[in-house]
Amino acid sequence: LLPIWSMANVAEGGAGLAVFLKTKNAAIRKIAIPASLTAFLGIVEPVMFGVNLKLARPFIGASIGGALGGAYAVFTHVSATSYGLSSIPMISIILPLGTANLIHYLIAFAIAVISAFIATLCLGFKDEKE
Fold first, then answer.
1. What are 33-70's pLDDT values in tens digits?
2. Which of 31, 39, 54, 123 could bridge across to 13 with cysteines, CB 3.0–4.6 Å?
């Protein structure tokens, strides 16, 4: 299940990057970029609670991206050797099972991030006043 959970984490980061690009609020911009980058390292709480849930629609966009990336990981049978951090650090857990496993993980990773980014841009969000 860890590769599927990982897609949810990176999708939160993709949605946070979309918020960073679209918002005019300086306070949200200041939080969005570092919080999004930490999601790619497996720590998703800052972007999820500090940005996406606060604005609501980016969380929906992240859910869409996580679902699409997770579905690809399931259909291609991406698996992990143990339990550990997700996102980019998870590559060390994925790699021992072969190059094909790693490639499918990276494709699922890209699908999750890009689809969450696009879904968040399409859904939009109500920009908060400063």
1. 999 999 999 899 999 999 999 999 999 999 999 999 99
2. 39
